[in-house]
Amino acid sequence: MNNSANALSKESMSKVTNVVVAGLGGQGVLKGTDILAEAVVRAGFDVKKSEIKGMSQRGGSVTGDVRFGKQVFSPMVTSGEADFLLVFEPSQVEPNRHFLRPEGVMITPDVVDAERLPSKKTLNVALLGALSAHLPVPESLWLETLKSGFDESFFEANKQAFQIGRATQSNSVR
Amino acid sequence: MKDQNRQLLSGDEAIALAARHAGVALGTGYPGTPSTEILEVFSKLGGVAQWSPNEKVAMEVAIGAAFAGARALCTMKHVGLNVAADPLFTASYTGVTGALVIVSADDPGMASSQNEQDNRRYAVAAGLPMLEPSDSQEAYDFTLQAIEISERWQIPVLLRVTTRVCHSYTVVQSRSDSTPAPEASFARDIRSRVMIPAYARPAHRRLRKKLAEIQAWNETSKLNPVIAGSPMLGIVASGISVMHAREVAPEASLLKLSLTHPLPLKQIEQFAKSVQRCVVIEEGDPYLVDAIRAAGVRVEGKAEMYRFGELDVARVKRILNYDLTAETSPPPGKPPQLCDGCQYRVVFEALRKRDCIVAGDIGCYTLGVLQPFEAIDSCVCMGASLGVGLGLRHVLPPDQARRVVSVIGDSTFMHTGINGLVEMVYNPPATGHVLIILDNSTTAMTGHQEHPGTGRKLNHEPTNKVTLESVARGIGVERVFVVEPRLGSVEFERALDESLASGELSVIIARRPCILIAKELKRYEQQCECPK
Ligand SMILES: Cc1ncc(C[n+]2csc(CCOP(=O)(O)OP(=O)(O)O)c2C)c(N)n1
Ligand code: SF4
């Protein structure tokens, strides 16, 4: 039975896309996973998003998991199963690298030119933009979600940051 | 997609939404991760919600509301139920007239807690029906179900959730078909509600009878579905473990338990007999497996190593594969710390310099235990700083005893520190004692909630304010200092030195609002000053 359990779980996992977003408290990790999860819901997927809050608000490490597909069971991404790893802060690359599967894609701040961003605070949105280029969600849904997910007054800046990110070629890390 | 009723919600939000849809008249609680958002969201949705000074009081207020025939919700983290255990164990005897749903939010893995106790044991010990949702949809549905059970059997119901259910967002389809909430009205029922021994004895029998009825009902209720699968492997699971198990072994047969006390043991037995191998997958204590085995049903449990921490897909796979090899722990992330510019830094620097023996408490300030301060010597539970500090003072040799101080936050002082202060005045140590109350005008550990000392209600509207200095003086402490801890000021250190040297009982209130809410505080204050 053990073998069949493993084989079957691989197959069912393959239909689910796993994203891990990592950074430090205050960097907008949870906001980033909110937007991502909301956008994929709007695109019609089942989605689960998991986060560990609590002590994280005091500047500690924060990670958020988003899983989507036809039907998602566990809300957590298993180590070695992430299709995408978004890292907002270089120091958090190593602690989270284990999440990525061998062919997974890592997206780090150096994929966008920080100088071009409307503000430092929009880095999370820019990296979502870079991720969005890989996901089956139309741009219009992303923009809708950005509009409703933040205060209206931030929309123009967020849109600009998102599009800068979306236009980049994120590096695929093995 | 644009279905108004289909929303991505956290488990906490789903509970709040269900409570609102069910017309819950009053939500009470005390903040605690991962339960805090339930009442905050319930309030934002228009529900009446309030923070009590602690969980015991919150539970009692909710019991009162349920005695009056209303629907009441009481929320807390797992350790909060310890504080509220006294009313809990007798509310199961008295029963309720309306509905009482008690949310216990457990924290396996201790994302933000001092222990990982498994509160399913409370349902057994206190004799309460218990529901365990596995995602936000069930958090929503089971809140409504809990109200139904509570009203039907006139019994409080425990809704037991865990961090992963509280803080994971999953899709929720809400309904609008719950029965209308009854009007509150007092109907005298002395024999049910006055637990003198003569009335409590029959009340205990009534409770056992209710539980027997609920168990019989549970055997055939739709709450514990079987997901048909291979007869080779059967899995019995509840809560979030169901999700991990379905992912790991989609081919297995699965009995998903939702009403996990009293257990549908006949159904479980039947299920176990229908499969070749039957494994119980549960997080934390071996609650299900022990109960099922005690009923004479042969099932497998997990190895002891999986009692610790959360379960996840990888660990469930290991359990099913009898894997006992050591688990690799992921590289450590960056630990949390006191915010830069936090007013508490001055305090811990001063305590460290004087080599004080610090009986600490729980809050942001517990981070004073880490580098660079390492200035906290104990942290047991909320309010313990006083008792533990006094105990140390009583027995240590005088040269050490004189260095002992108790450090507590303002919210924690309101929670259970006041009792400790009464103890300090009643049984003063020979060397005196020093209590430092860190008053940052908020409950910051759990994300900035109001408490009785802030003068604002849960929704930040003004109310009566309980002032720390008048409480301390009222209890009988003569030396009460109010100082502002800030860089470049020696105010705090001076009060500390004077208190330590005096050999008497002192309370130092170190008052400076948390820097993270300076803006909000200004806004609230302006609102306060509006003409009424
Ligand atoms: C019985 C119990 N209830 C709730 C909690 C969660 N909790 C931990 S500390 C704390 C309050 C912290 O507030 P305060 O004492 O004002 O200190 P601050 O964090 O603001 O420094 C709470 C609610 C707990 N650990 N135990
Ligand atoms: S949240 Fe406020 S009280 Fe807590 S560590 Fe930060 S500044 Fe200090």
Structure report:
The complex is a heterodimer of chains A (174) and B (532). Chain A has 174 residues and is of the alpha/beta class. In chain A, 37% of the residues lie in helices and 21% in strands. Chain A has helices at 2-13, 29-42, 93-96, 123-132, 139-149, 155-167; strands at residues 17-24, 46-51, 61-69, 82-87, 100-107. In chain A, β4 (82-87), α3 and β5 (100-107) form a beta-alpha-beta unit. In chain A, α2 crosses α5 and α4 packs across α6 (155-167). Chain B is α/β, with parallel strands linked by helices and 532 residues long. Chain B folds into three domains: 6-220, Rossmann fold (3-Layer(aba) Sandwich), CATH 3.40.50; 226-320, Rossmann fold (3-Layer(aba) Sandwich), CATH 3.40.50; 344-527, Thiamin diphosphate (ThDP)-binding fold, Pyr/PP domains (Rossmann fold), CATH 3.40.50.970. A seven-stranded mixed beta sheet of chain B has the order 3-2-4-5-7-6-12, with helices on both faces. In chain B, strands 14-15-16-18-17 form a five-stranded parallel beta sheet, with helices on both faces. Residues 338-339, 342, 344, 364, 440, 444, 514-516 of chain B line the site of iron/sulfur cluster (SF4). Thiamine diphosphate is lined by residues 30-32, 55, 77, 79-80, 83, 114, 362-365, 382, 409-412, 438, 440, 442-446 of chain B.
Q: Report the span from N to C terminus of chain B.
A: 45 Å
Shape of chain A: globular
Radius of gyration of chain A: 16 Å
How much helix is in the residues of chain B?
40-55%
CATH superfamily of chain A: Pyruvate-ferredoxin oxidoreductase, PFOR, domain III
Fraction in beta strands of chain B:
15-25%
Q: CATH H level of the largest domain in chain B: which superfamily?
A: Thiamin diphosphate (ThDP)-binding fold, Pyr/PP domains
The most extensive contact between chains is:
A-B, 47 and 47 residues
How many strand segments of chain B? Answer: 18
The appropriate CATH architecture of the largest domain in chain B is: 3-Layer(aba) Sandwich
Highest CATH level, the class of chain A: Alpha Beta
| Overall mean confidence score, pLDDT of chain B | 96
Q: Please state the oligomeric state of the protein chains shown.
A: heterodimer
The number of helices of chain B is 21
Small molecules bound:
thiamine diphosphate, iron/sulfur cluster
- Computed Rg of chain B: 25 Å
Strand order of the largest sheet of chain B: 3-2-4-5-7-6-12
